[in-house]
Amino acid sequence: MLDIKFIRENPEIVKENMRKKFKDHKIVDDFLKMDGKYRKDLNDVQKLKARRNELTREIAEKMKKKLDAKSLLKEAKESPEKIKEMDDEIASLKIKMDQLILTIPNIISDDVPIGRDSKENVETAQFGTPKKYDFKPKNHVELVEDLGIVDFEGAARVTGKGFFYLKGDIVLLNQAIIRFALDFMVKKGYTPIEPPLMLDRKHVMAVMPSADFEQHAFKIDGKEQYMIATSEHPLVAWFQDQVIDKKQLPLKLTGFSQCFRQEIGSHGIEEKGLYRTHQFNKVEQVIICEPEDSVKFYKEIRNNSIELYKALELPFRTLESCSGDLGDLKFKGEDLEAWSPVKNEYYEIGSCSNLTDNQARRANIKVFDGQKRYTPHTLNNTAIATSRCMVAIIENNQNKDGSITVPKVLVPYMNGVKVIKRK
């Protein structure tokens, strides 16, 4: 959420930013019109309330002097109803303004490439070299089903598509990725957190855009609670409506959780597969920091993910999000994509974001430096989403006999298993 004062003082900057994101900038004019009426009405009702207090004093003086106070009494009788009508109108207008301001996107960085959608994202770096195979590589679904280590049909039978049973060595692989990522992040100075898997509506709406909420959030039947889509949300919501001591910054957290997503939209859920599912595990990076430090920490969390995937010896690239593909809360963003030897293309496995003060203002997070309160910046990035990481490992590390070689850095977490074979 943008600072309302910034919108008032810089309407053309806000409109131009919306043009860069290919959004209707008329919203800004609508908001400012509402804001003008809201401030006028607020001033008017304050005058009415002051007049109400004056009436009480004037009536008392008239009555004391035994003078005619009929007109004053009539005005005093009508005053509460007028005030209530105006208070109700102001409250209703404030709700509309609060909803409308959330649709105005964050100001994007000057170096964000301008483009309408993900097709216009810009590759910034490549790491590793895709392997050449002397056989036709299989996709991960074929491989894990042949090995008997994942059951998609059994999960679909008891739950529906978008879920899976992991079995045997792939369970160890999943846990190995989690432990490897957590150990890596802890060594980097991040505090590991295992958050709640549900949030109430107030906190969900404060930390994620409305569009994402509609696409991802699973509601708990009969309650205003939702399953989390990423541990970023409960980690940031933890500080909602709180005041953080400046001395605590930066807060560097690494969250581990299961994540739940409806995945409504153009992509949808795969009939079979580990890539796009309703439930998965993820190790996340979240930073809350001083405003002047967010550019520095954006580079840090980006480099953390690059180091992790380099250690796994997988071919991947980084991709700068263009203006139209950048989420509304984001100042700047970049995706990390792994290579698929089956599709001969890259696919997303993580997303890095600097939200500047947009998310923190939305969640009413403040910092106190001993003299004043101000809004910090928040950042997040996937460390590793295990299901998507497993797809990359399975497809890139497959062997001619259908077995899968475990990355060397994961072997210590695998009870010594170096190759996953059919048993």
Characterize the structure shown:
The protein is α+β, with helices and mostly antiparallel strands and 423 residues long. The protein has two domains: 4-101, Orthogonal Bundle (Helix Hairpins); 118-420, Bira Bifunctional Protein, Domain 2 (BirA Bifunctional Protein, domain 2), CATH 3.30.930. It is built from 13 helices and 18 strands. Strands 1-11-12-13-16-10-9-4 form an eight-stranded mixed sheet. Strands 5-7-6 form a three-stranded antiparallel sheet. Strands 8-14-15 form a three-stranded mixed sheet, with no helix packed on it. β12 (332-340) and β13 form a beta hairpin. α3 (26-64) runs antiparallel to α4. The longest helix has 39 residues, at 26-64. The radius of gyration is 27 Å and the shape is elongated. The mean pLDDT is 94.
Which labels suit this protein?
3-stranded antiparallel sheet, BirA Bifunctional Protein, domain 2, Helix Hairpins, 423 residues, alpha+beta, 41% helix, 18 strands
N- to C-terminal distance: 54 Å
Here the CATH topology of the largest domain equals BirA Bifunctional Protein, domain 2
| CATH first level of the largest domain | Alpha Beta
CATH architecture annotation of the largest domain: 2-Layer Sandwich
The proportion of residues forming helix, as a percent range, comes to 40-55%
Biggest sheet strand line-up = 1-11-12-13-16-10-9-4
- The poorly predicted ranges are none
Structural category is: alpha+beta
How many helical stretches? 13
Domain module count: 2
* Radius of gyration using CA atoms only: 27 Å
What proportion strand?
Answer: 15-25%
CATH superfamily grouping of the largest domain: Bira Bifunctional Protein, Domain 2
Say how many strands there are: 18
Q: What is the residue-averaged pLDDT? A: 94
Looking at the structure, what is the overall shape? elongated
Largest sheet: 8 strands, mixed
